[in-house]
UniProtKB/TrEMBL annotation, chain A:
GO MF term list: mRNA 3'-UTR AU-rich region binding
Ranges of Acidic residues composition bias in the record: 346-366
Lineage, highest ranks first: Eukaryota, Metazoa, Chordata, Craniata, Vertebrata
Taxonomy, superkingdom: Eukaryota
Tagged with keyword Hydrolase: no
Annotated Gene Ontology cellular component terms: cytoplasmic exosome (RNase complex); nuclear exosome (RNase complex); nucleolus
Gene: EXOSC9
Name the record gives this protein: Exosome complex component RRP45
Signal peptide, first to last residue: none
Keyword annotations: Cytoplasm, Exosome, Nucleus, RNA-binding, rRNA processing
UniProt domain Exoribonuclease phosphorolytic: residue ranges: 32-163, 189-255
Localisation: Cytoplasm; Nucleus, Nucleolus
One annotated GO biological process: U5 snRNA 3'-end processing
Similarity-based family: Belongs to the RNase PH family.
Chain intervals for the UniProt region annotation (Disordered): 346-383
From TrEMBL, chain B:
Sequence ranges assigned to domain Exosome complex exonuclease Rrp40 N-terminal in this UniProt record: 41-75
Entry protein name: Exosome complex component RRP40
Species lineage: Eukaryota, Metazoa, Chordata, Craniata, Vertebrata
BP terms from Gene Ontology: CUT catabolic process; exonucleolytic trimming to generate mature 3'-end of 5.8S rRNA from tricistronic rRNA transcript (SSU-rRNA, 5.8S rRNA, LSU-rRNA); nuclear polyadenylation-dependent rRNA catabolic process; poly(A)-dependent snoRNA 3'-end processing; regulation of gene expression; TRAMP-dependent tRNA surveillance pathway; U4 snRNA 3'-end processing
Regions crossing the membrane: none
Amino acid sequence: MKDTPLSNCERDFLLKAIEEKKRVDGRQTYDYRNIKITFGTDYGCCFVDLGKTRVMAQVSCELVTPKENRPNEGIMFFNIELSPMASPAFELGRQSELLVKLNRQLERCLRNSKCIDTESLCVVSGEKVWQIRVDVHMLNHDGNLMDAASVAAITALCHFRRPDVGIQGDEVTLYSVEERDPIPLSIYHMPICVSFAFFQQGTYLLVDPCEREERVMDGLLMIAMNKHREICSIQSSGGIMLLKEQVLRCSKIASVKVSEITELITKALENDKKARKEGGRCGFAESMPRERITALKMDETPVEMTDVMERANDIVQRGEAPVPSPVLPAPGMGQVGEGLQNTWGLEEEEEEDDDDEEEEEEEEEEKVTMMEEEPRGKEEINPFSSFSPCLRMYFLKLF
Amino acid sequence: MYSCFKDKIGEVLLPGDEFSFETDETISLTDTVKAEKVVCGPGLRRNGDQVLVCKSGVLRHKQPNMFWIDSQQRRYVPAKGESVIGIVTAKSGDVFKVDVGGSEQATLSYLAFEGATKRNRPNVQVGDLVFCQFIIANKDMEPELVCIDSAGRANGMGVFGAGGFLFRVSLGLVRRLLAPRSDIISDLEKLLPCELVVGMNGRVWVKAGSVQQTLVVANLLESCENMTAPQRQALFRRVAQGAL
């Protein structure tokens, strides 16, 4: 399905607004949208909201044979998927340019920067190493997918715990999650990607472009940095010419933003650790705000509970003795177990039974709330068989 | 029959709720029996003897006997006679292809403009906005648009001029804006002078004195979606004192 085309009117207006340093949602030129990080119940599952852009990252691990040229190092595998639910322009199964660009940038940002100690992922050199796989899914596209994806990926990697492995001589034991606590990955630093959008041949720049601004931009500069002010990767796309001062200015802005975002990530990880330690419920469902409309909300009906025990005992005493078992009411019929008095084949007594039942029904309403206190086997009280927990068996009339 | 509906006016109904009309058991021989006719609008569907609700929303009533369900949705389905804002995506042969936000692109003929002839073509480029209405819009055919009314006059329709800003809102808000004595519009008039075009496909075009004012109006309208009347008036008052 094709995306809605951008009209000339919108394009002109957006460019004019940018020239006047105004953004559609009211942000300043260097402002990021609200970032919200939530974690799922599994270790390694993380959702990141950047304004309306929503991204999910999931980390998983597996034991595999290492690459031949690197027998002591673990393997990292990154995968970004553009889900069709993110935007009508994304089609499932098609390798679009955007997808290739995002994948390549994430790999450069995380793999080439060596943020994860791959040697610690080695179990048996040359035979078994851990393969860590990071899957990032785009859930909603409102601009700046790369930043959201990089934050989600590094947060998920920090959150992830891999199963513990014990080595004794030649024996390698893989402990499950229940046997031994899983251990976190060893992460040296957290590279985060910051995107700058350029307009009018590089004259104006905006940080964190939203989807509309991305459509009218001339070029994009992505700088991946960590909080120690080390640049992990720079990529410029769109073919615009940038001056040296512009690139330096962008890197300064990026370092400020990255330190803010790193702080946010560490705080989120701490909150999650605290919540898990306290045993509180954590996870995606808990972190969603409770915006429910309780459609059917009835006030609790007050139940008359005064002198409940006396009334119950009273009723028990006034009740009739239970039917002895087994009993043969009529030839060819038998009754085993406690239950109602069998009335099959006893037509003469039917009318009397009806009267009894009517009386019992009136008493029944009062007794419904006190069912638990009554002793079992009070079969004559209830004409409603569902309340009676007794066994009843009726033999068919045999001719 | 009427009374069944009357009880539920203003209540939230869900798809699957039904109004079944049971005839009274005793028919009076002396009173005259009035034939009641009830007109079911969008969201209500007749199913034999019952009327079923097929959209979730609030039941509304208009005198004398019209009932419909007021629902909120963002996806537009073309319907005949509705005026919409479309974006021209292609020129092919004698027609323009226009995107209206539905599942298919609609066609708009060159000759469907006021004063257009085969020699005198309208000045419409790809990417322009047009305000037009549907003459054919059903699920079996490609929708068709025109920029003239039945008498051949433009009547406010046609290509948009330069400037202004286009944004999307939900269909429920659009209907509230287009209601005869809309509160939102009257509040907005007192706040800022601006030009406003509202398309029934959820697209709204705004043009005010400056870029800042246009953005203010656009953001106000987008936020009016989920606000009650007092909240909205408080917000408008704050904007009137603060920004301008």
